[in-house]
Specification:
Strand content: 5-15%
Number of strands: 2
Radius of gyration: 17 Å
Number of helices: 4
Structural class: mainly alpha
Strand order of the largest sheet: 1-2
Low-confidence stretches: none
Mean pLDDT: 88
Shape: extended
């Protein structure tokens, strides 16, 4: 719990820990975990190599918005990744 301007707020970590006690939430989280770990690794590697989304998109013969959507986790790309 954190306090800001006299009000107490639950942190993301605390909220997640509480939600993980719900079996349905836990199953959903565990099912998506590999996807988000891969995305996180890709972002980390791209940043380590100092490659922009636009540069990565060019290497993959796609567009920068496709990379942005993938990195945000908002879509599940096809093999065409266009």
């Amino acid at each position: 719990m954190i306090e800001y301007k006299g009000k107490k707020y639950i942190t993301h970590t605390e909220l997640h820990e509480k939600a993980m006690k719900d079996p349905e939430y836990r199953r959903g989280y565990e099912a998506l975990k590999p996807r988000y770990e891969f995305i996180s690794q890709l972002i980390d590697l791209r940043n380590q190599k100092k490659i922009t989304q636009k540069q990565l998109a060019k290497m993959l013969k796609t567009r920068q918005p496709s990379i942005a959507r993938f990195e945000s986790g908002r879509n599940n790309p096809s093999l065409d990744f266009a």
